[in-house]
Specification:
Layout: E1 7-9, E2 15-17, E3 35-38, E4 48-52, E5 55-58, E6 69-73, E7 82-86, E8 89-91, E9 102-105, E10 111-112, E11 120-121, E12 123-129, E13 132-135, E14 141-142
Antiparallel strand pairs: 1-2, 3-7, 4-5, 4-6, 6-7, 8-13, 9-10, 9-12, 11-14, 12-13
Length: 143
């Protein structure tokens, strides 16, 4: 069998073969670009937000109009005010997270480790530590 060397993307954007003795440094982004939305209901830092017919609201697995998760609220906000939403990457200052556990959309903007058997299932990422997650939002699956 022929020895094969993987291709890697170098710092200058070109492809190169991985050479003997080289290593791969895998780094998850600590942040991703946030965007600003106007809230259609009150939200707290760490809540999952969704695009709905009413505007940007707390995401909810049991409401088909509120399962299209946009990201996580980066601060507390009240209806009518603007708020930053993080659509992916590392999210910190959470509670009740287990490292390595898949995380799902719950009710009223909650992040849960429980897979839903009713409503919709939306995997939103996985736990990194007991207080942080990697936010990677999947499409909703109607159950």
């Amino acid at each position: 069998m022929a020895l094969r060397k993987p291709l890697v993307l170098s710092d200058d954007g070109t492809f190169q073969q991985l050479q003997a003795g080289d290593s791969l440094d895998i780094v998850h982004p600590s942040t991703s670009t946030s965007f600003v939305v106007t809230l259609a209901e009150d939200a707290s830092e760490g809540d999952l937000l969704a695009a709905s017919s009413q505007g940007v609201v707390l995401a909810d697995k049991d409401d088909d109009d509120k399962v299209n998760v946009l990201g996580v609220a980066e601060a507390d906000g009240v209806i009518g005010n603007s708020i930053n939403v993080k659509p992916g990457g590392l999210v910190e200052n959470l509670t009740g997270i287990s490292a390595g556990a898949p995380l799902f959309l719950g009710s009223a903007g909650a992040i849960t480790m429980s897979y839903s058997s009713t409503g919709n299932s939306v995997r939103v990422g996985f736990g990194i530590t007991s207080s942080s997650m990697l936010l990677e939002i999947d499409q909703p699956i109607k159950l």
